[in-house]
Predict the structure.
Amino acid sequence: MSVIAWLKPAVGLLPVLVFLLTLVYLDSYKLTKLRTVLAVVASGGLMAVAAYFCNARLIAFLQIDYETYSHWVGPVVEECLKALIMLYLIQTHRIGFLVDAAILGFAVGAGFAVVENLYYLEMTPTAGLGLWLIRGFGTTFMHGAVAAIFGVVVLTLTGRSQRLTPTFLLPGLIAAITIHAVFNHFYVSPIISTAGTILVLPLLLYEVFQRSEKLVGNWLGTGFDADAELLELLNSGDLSGSPLGTYLHTLKDKFKGLVVADILCFVRLHTELALRAKGLLMMRESGFDVPVDEETREKFAEMQYLERSIGKTGLRAIQPMLHMSRQDLWQLYMLENEEDR
């Protein structure tokens, strides 16, 4: 094979994957597992396959030419499919911070772009190197960046809310579809569009990284202190004069005594595990990788038992006593699954 024949798949597939690995490397708190990143890349590839069939059906149904479809309809279909993966990751607390929203969002787009480019390599084997430079450095980066932008916007808008409503979803989805559609229109030359993509979008993601790293640091500091104070109060055994004690007293009229006792145990375990998770992140940031011990895993098993004992109503009742933002729920998910890293 000629050098050009080797270069075409290389420039079409490698740049986006290299940039994704760079994002993972820059994550100083190691918020995302490599296994998770690879699984998300594969999921993005599956969505590219789904998009192929959806696009073929819609082109036939709408009876419009491919160029018009790719300008106006294709971006809507493809960004909605990629968004499904991001929504699943956010709703299941696998994403808690802007950093991992950016990494996993870019991973979704990278997987999508790689499969799409493999298809184009098969269908257009005689295409010149210039086309693959545009696809490898322009289209692939666009796919990764817009999925990352969707995740970042949704996570920013949801804040402490545990519900993903259209109000939280539409701004990010509209932004992703708009950027995708504008890129597909090539209002300026493809070369200039590609240059703009590889200059602007990576810088935007880098800014997200810088901002999120500061937010993670602030959250670790204030959250660690708050959890430590709560645990100290629980261990003191004297809750009568505290807001926590007053709130527990109000629960006695709504739940049986044994359930209230389980609620107190649940709050203690939740706080201990939250402290443990924050400690792990602090150690990682300093370059240490501390494994989860058997005692921690036993605490998770006990907390799951208490969840069943308390019930959904009881869990909703104790949310005011706990830190239950997406970041706090994410840290427990991270700690519970740490042994799989």
User: Anything to note?
Assistant: The mean pLDDT is 84. The longest helix spans residues 190-236. The two ends are 40 Å apart (CA to CA).
